[in-house]
Amino acid sequence: MSALAQSVIDTALTMSTSGLSAGRSGNVSVRDGDRILITPTGMAYEELVVSDIVSMGLDGSVPPGSRKPSSEWHFHAAICAARQDVNAIVHTHSNAATALACLEEGIPAFHYMVAAAGGTDIRCAPYATFGTEELAALAVEALEDRNACLLAHHGVIACGADLVKAYDLAVEVETLAEQYGRARLLGTVPLLSDDEMQRVLEKFKGYGQQK
């Protein structure tokens, strides 16, 4: 557990120090068998040690004496329960993506890299109060056939087979949101067709070094 817990800390620290999600905002989790390891609520990432990382059942149960898990544990647990392909989740309040989410908008197919999130667009889940089962259900729905979504008036969820992939996708979503926002300042943004996005999705299946 210690190496996996340390990877949660390292990811949270990188998320914070890179500016992807300032201060204590956002949270990180990784699957650990039938449980998840998740950042604790209300603690500065630079102060975390391995014993602070919470081992939590998908029902929210934690061992006696452990830290309280992130206030957003509901959607971490719900996503892992619904998606066996997801082993890691990074939640951020990154600036450009959150600004777009505050307009209750997702990211359409303005750029082929939108397909990096697994579909022809990146959806925005409707608003629900943070830390609730309602938000968790809306997030799971927005993530159907996708690995990332925006949360209205809130932030971003990025998922992956491991923490590196989840974090990298969170960075990509923020980059796309910033590019889309800038493009909109210049005028109406034309979108790629569904057919083209399907071609891109197929090409992505064989992209990079395959193991």
Features:
L-fuculose-1-phosphate Aldolase; 211 residues; 7 strands; alpha+beta
Structural features, described:
The radius of gyration is 17 Å and the shape is globular. The model has no long low-confidence stretch (mean pLDDT 95). It has one domain (2-204): L-fuculose-1-phosphate Aldolase (3-Layer(aba) Sandwich). Strands 3-2-1-4-7-6-5 form a seven-stranded mixed sheet, with helices on both faces. Strand 6 (148-151) and strand 7 (155-160) form a beta hairpin. The protein contains six helices and seven strands, in the order H-E-E-E-H-E-H-E-H-E-E-H-H. With 211 residues, it is of the alpha+beta class. It has helices at 2-17, 73-82, 95-101, 133-142, 163-186, 194-204; strands at 27-32, 35-38, 54-57, 88-92, 124-125, 148-151, 155-160.
- From the 3D coordinates, which CATH architecture would you assign? 3-Layer(aba) Sandwich
The SS-based structural class is alpha+beta
Helix content: 25-40%
Mean pLDDT: 95
* Number of helices, counting only DSSP H or I runs of 4 residues or more: 6
Q: What string gives the helices and strands in order?
A: HEEEHEHEHEEHH
What is the count of structural domains? 1
Under CATH, the topology can be stated as L-fuculose-1-phosphate Aldolase
Biggest β-sheet: count, sense, barrel? 7 strands, mixed
Outline the fold blueprint.
Elements: H1 2-17, E1 27-32, E2 35-38, E3 54-57, H2 73-82, E4 88-92, H3 95-101, E5 124-125, H4 133-142, E6 148-151, E7 155-160, H5 163-186, H6 194-204
Parallel strand pairs: 5-6
Antiparallel strand pairs: 1-2, 1-4, 2-3, 4-7, 6-7
Helix pairs in contact: 2-4, 3-5
